Amino acid sequence: MRQSEMLVPTLREAPAEADAAGHRWLLRSGMIRQLAAGIYSFLPLGRRILLNVERIVREEMDRAGCQEVLLPIMQPAELWEESGRYTQYGPELMRLKDRHAREFALGPTHEEVVTALARDEVNSYRKLPFTLYQIGTKFRDERRPRFGLLRGREFIMKDAYSFASDWEELDRTYQAMNTAYSRILERCGLEYIRVEADAGTIGGQGETHEFMALADVGEDTIVTCKHCGYAANLEKAGYQTSGYTTGNSAQAEDSVSSGSSGSTTAVRAVENVEDNTLVRIETPGVRTIAELSSFVGKAPHEIIKTLLYQADGQLIAALVRGDHEVNDIALKQVLGAEELILADETALASHPKLTVGFLGPIGLDLPIVVDADVAAMEHAITGANEVDVHYSNVVPGKDFALDKVDRIRFAAEGDGCPTCGESLVFTKGIEVGHIFKLGTKYSDAMGASFLDRNGRQCAPVMGCYGIGVSRLMAAIAEQYAGEEGIRWPSAIAPYHVHLIPMSWKDEQQRELTLELEQQLLDAGYSVLVDDRDERPGVKFKDSELIGLPVQIVIGRGAAERQVEFGSHVLAAQGESNRISMTAHEAVERAKEEL
Predict the structure, then answer these.
(1) pTM score
(2) Are 26 and 14 in contact (CB under 8 A)?
(3) Is the CB of residue 357 less than 8 Å from the CB of residue 391?
């Protein structure tokens, strides 16, 4: 390919919307361009990377015995209503109407469509098991698209769906897909980890796992144990509690200054724990946990935090310690709610006495879910449901009821592994794949069935397996982003070798370039030739931005068949950017490294 004929609009500065390293380099190297928030065009180089990722995904799916299909993007709303997800999915589901006012959804996933297909086509156990997959565009109306391709409103995904006659068959497919996903990520050169996960809006009746690419920019938190190998998404992570109680005064002294910036009266009030008398504290303008901690001279883990939620439209309160955060998914499961959102001003309008910043469980006329660590506290500080007032000496079970106690918080620093008790480790990751055991969730809801060996009507047992193709590209960009650009792994790079003649007009340089190009093409490698009439500095800068695995510079030494060789391998070894060698040696070195 001649670079002079290719659309590669490199940028010297990253656009303002680029908020992650990989995203910045994808824009600067001319791989992608934003059309609207969360919607991107893939330019020629970016499209080639995407096709390479798709090729790897497709090869591993075929190797696992899956069959490729292409399912409609526009999905009738009736199918989503059959499964019950049309209202459950929320505003992220893009909905539209055709000219006949018939409702459709732009598919974020295809469980309903593929289940309807199986319902119509599969009526006997003899046609099971099988797995269908597709690679195509999906849509999700993200509230706040971020990080370029990592959280977009339009994205490319491989989704697969398996149908089995029983759970044993499903388990075999699940394990085969687990192996296939591991091979895909390894072939793409990603550093990743497989973790236990929550099924989210897709749901299911069995285990589910996510495949996380490790990256600081990742929006998911991965909880692991280096001792026993436990790994889970923060949403799913178990823990052994750190065990702090309000009696841990040493911890409090370590965590905050002893009230130096707060009220002396307030400090005396919270220290009066000889009896269980409830003490009223004036706390003017003190709304946050951090402010309250400083004001009264106590650590956050000695404070009860009260949060209000709407669970299927009903207002409820959730209590956690001040150093903890509510796990919305755990709380949703405890309540058995289909929808759970943090209460906003509109929801609180009918409760004028509730003032955010001073909320507490005492006298609160709402259903209350108490985290297990709060229930174990001996004395605590809470809001008094009155502006500028808090209570100290609060005793859970005495001053407010413990009718509903469960684990509703996220695992936190200091917690122990749920398996072995060793300290948990927290890292960031990008979800690039997710596999589910759906069971009969969709086949039951949508009336899909088959006759088993004994002539009984049974629902097929399903699995679902998604991998973000465009997210994979973005995750690789994040892991391989350097100071000058992205160093693309050879398996997915848009081209293997970048040939850079200093002067295309020079006959000897041009002839040697063409000779090297043909040798590399004959050996099965893809080649990009920079035949532009540009200064060497421009060519070198663009080459760094594009980030091909091997660069061969053809300059004044062309007459003697001398070139300069550069590569990602050389850079990783800390050697100079380019080393001099013969043209033959450069080709052989390229073959060796690629």
Answers:
(1) 0.88
(2) no
(3) no
